[in-house]
Every structure is written in structure tokens, then in C-alpha cells.
């Protein structure tokens, strides 16, 4: 999504992000060539889940339209995106409960949709992708937030994901394998 296209200035209160609900995010092929395949997959999943939330379109149809047909994604990235979506769809209620438990003095319904989706993706990666270090997950999602959300989103997402990571780790539920994945992420 190009922020410039969607920002409108209203009086002296600063920019307000306006997104038409039937609009899809715009991708920049030159920018996309510079990103890793996993990063692109995460962004496409964000776009799909945002579109689903705004339009209530079927995620399978959106997957075919937005991800499967994306020629910039290799087979591993397509599978990564597919797995993220499967875990998201089958664990959405539990993901939202985890997020809600970490919000102090803040109502879940007031969290920006893009931020919710990015946090959900982070929790999924913590729990179901043992090969991805938590630190890599958090850093990637903060970078995506810089491109797709507000200036403060990165700090918010970082705080929530660190709290979730610490909680999962203390409960022995942080599903990570390989030498140094847990220690490097602290």
C-alpha cells in the first residue's frame, strides 16, 4: 500500500490514513526485488488478511488472487504464506486472546487492524515455525509496520511481541529448534 496515495491532510491536525475498503494494497516491483522471499510472503499475507477483514472475501479466493498468482514469490515463499494463513485461520481466536491479555489499559477493538495482523503473524511464527528466530520475526514485522502502518506501530508491535515471547518462553511454549535460536533472541 502506498501511503502517499491514501494520505489526506485535514486542517492542522496532520495526516489521516484513508483506505477504501474495496482497494487492494499496491506493490512496487522495484522495491519487492530487493526484499527477501519470506519478507514478501509476510507482506502478501498481511495484504490478504487486511482485504479479508475489510471485504469479508474468502481467504482461499484471496490466496489464489493475491499470493498464488504472484510471480515474484518462489515456491518456498508460497508455502510459507500458505502455512501462515492456515495457522491464522485455525487459531484466530487463540491469537486474539493472547494479544488481548497483553494489552494494558487498551481495548482490543481499538488496535489498528494492520498492527493486529502483524502481531498475529508474529505469534504464529513463535509457535509454529521453529526454524525462525524470534528476534528475526520481531525485526521483520517492525520493518513491515514502518512501510504499512503508523510511525508508532513498530514500538507497539515490538512491545506486544516481546511480552508474548517472554510469556511463551517462561511456559515452555516457545517452539524453537536449533542452536542459539532462543539465546540469540533474548
Q: Rough shape?
A: globular
Radius of gyration, whole Å: 16 Å
Measured by DSSP, the beta-strand proportion falls in under 5%
Total strand segments:
2
Q: What fold name stands as the CATH topology?
A: N-utilizing Substance Protein B Homolog, Chain A
Notes on the protein architecture:
By secondary structure, this protein is mainly α. The protein has one domain (3-185): NusB-like (N-utilizing Substance Protein B Homolog, Chain A). The protein is built from nine helices and two strands, in the order αββαααααααα. Strand 1 (7-9) and strand 2 form a beta hairpin. The two termini are 32 Å apart. Mean pLDDT is 82; it is low at 1-24.
Brief characterization of the structure:
This protein is mainly α and 186 residues long. It is built from 9 helices and 2 strands. It has one domain: Orthogonal Bundle (N-utilizing Substance Protein B Homolog, Chain A).
Q: What secondary-structure arrangement, pairings included, does this model have?
A:
Layout (H helix, E strand, L loop, with lengths): L2 H4 E3 L5 E3 L11 H5 L3 H19 L3 H10 L6 H28 L10 H16 L5 H15 L4 H18 L10 H5 L1
Antiparallel strand pairs: 1-2
Helix pairs in contact: 3-4, 3-5, 3-6, 4-5, 5-6, 6-7, 6-8, 7-8
Amino acid at each position: 500500500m502506498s501511503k502517499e496515495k491514501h494520505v489526506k491532510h485535514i486542517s492542522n491536525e496532520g495526516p489521516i490514513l484513508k483506505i477504501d475498503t474495496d482497494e487492494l494494497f499496491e506493490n512496487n516491483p522495484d522495491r519487492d526485488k530487493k526484499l527477501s522471499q519470506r519478507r514478501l510472503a509476510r507482506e502478501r499475507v498481511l495484504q490478504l488478511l487486511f482485504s479479508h477483514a475489510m471485504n469479508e472475501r474468502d481467504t482461499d479466493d484471496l490466496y489464489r488472487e493475491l499470493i498464488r498468482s504472484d510471480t515474484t514469490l518462489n515456491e518456498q515463499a508460497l508455502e510459507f504464506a500458505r502455512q501462515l494463513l492456515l495457522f491464522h485461520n485455525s487459531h484466530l481466536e487463540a491469537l486474539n486472546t493472547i494479544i488481548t491479555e497483553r494489552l494494558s489499559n487498551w481495548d482490543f477493538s481499538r488496535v489498528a487492524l494492520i498492527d493486529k495482523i502483524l502481531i498475529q503473524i508474529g505469534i504464529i511464527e513463535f509457535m509454529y515455525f521453529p526454524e525462525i528466530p524470534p528476534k528475526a520475526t520481531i525485526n521483520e514485522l517492525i520493518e513491515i509496520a514502518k512501510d504499512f502502518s503508523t510511525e508508532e506501530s513498530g514500538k507497539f508491535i515490538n512491545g506486544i511481541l516481546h511480552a508474548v515471547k517472554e510469556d511463551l518462553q517462561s511456559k515452555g511454549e516457545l517452539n524453537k529448534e536449533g542452536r542459539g535460536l532462543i539465546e540469540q533472541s533474548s
